[in-house]
Each structure stands twice: as C-alpha cells, then as structure tokens.
Amino acid sequence: MTRFFSALCCALMLGGCTYSVHQVALGNFDDLPPNARMRPIEVDASQKVVLATGNTDFSDEAMQKLAAACPNGQVMGIQARHSTDLGFVVYTNRMKISAYCVETDTKTQ
Predict the structure, then answer these.
(1) What is the DSSP secondary structure assignment for residue 89, as one 8-state letter?
(2) Strand, helix or coil for residue 108
(3) Could you give phi then psi for residue 47, rounded to 5 degrees?
(4) 24 near 94, Cβ under 8 Å?
C-alpha cells in the first residue's frame, strides 16, 4: 500500500500541470476619426506564484506596456486575455493584450 501511495504521489507531481483561460475581454472602436492611422500593438506580462502568494501587479505592468507602445496616439480595440499555467506548487499568471494604436494624421486637418 505504501508503494502504491508513493507511486500515486509521484504521478500527481509529475503530471499535474494544467492550463486555464480565465477571461477574454474585447473592446470596440468608438469615435474612430476618419483620418486615423491604425497600428497593431501587442504586450504581455506574467507572474510566477508559489503556494498562492501573489498579487495583481502583472496586469498593471501589461497596461503600462500598452500605454508605452502608443505614446502619440489613442489605444482602441483592446483584446485582453488572462490565463494561468497551473503546476503542482507553482503557477504562472499571464496577461496578453492586443490592441490598435490610433494616430491621427495632423497634416490633413
């Protein structure tokens, strides 16, 4: 019985990894100027968590990277994906954000 329990524990530790998508959020293109140029941007951030001791700073980091990727425009059409890679004792939170940087052409105004 002890041998069976030891084998079961080893199997769970080695094969107990899963992947979970928690949320996918989509934005829209309200008030898109007629002379706007759209450039796709994509950012991601992650956080390793050990024994459920983590915070949500990784999502703030992703939003800061998104704003930095579009310094002279407006971010529109945001698609945010929050997922987790689950392990035995350690898991990784991931935030991936795709959007468009909309820049207005001031020369044609």
Answers:
(1) S
(2) helix
(3) -150, 125
(4) no
Edge-to-edge strand ranges of the sheet holding 36-50: 18-26, 74-86, 90-104, 36-50
Burial code (b: 16+ CB inside 10 Å, e: under 16) for 44-74 equals ebebebeeeeeeeebbebbbebbeebbeebe
Scan for tokens 């329990």, then name that residue: 5
Q: Which residue has the tokens 């019985």?
A: 1
Domain ranges of the chain: 17-108
The DSSP H or E segment spanning 61 is helix 57-68
Sequence-distant (6+) residues with CB within 8 A of 28 are 76, 77
Residues 50-83 have pLDDT tens digits of 876 667 788 889 989 999 999 988 888 889 888 8
DSSP classification of residue 14 = H
30, 9, 11: which is closest to 77 by C-alpha? 30
Cβ distance 35 to 104 under 8 Å? Answer: yes
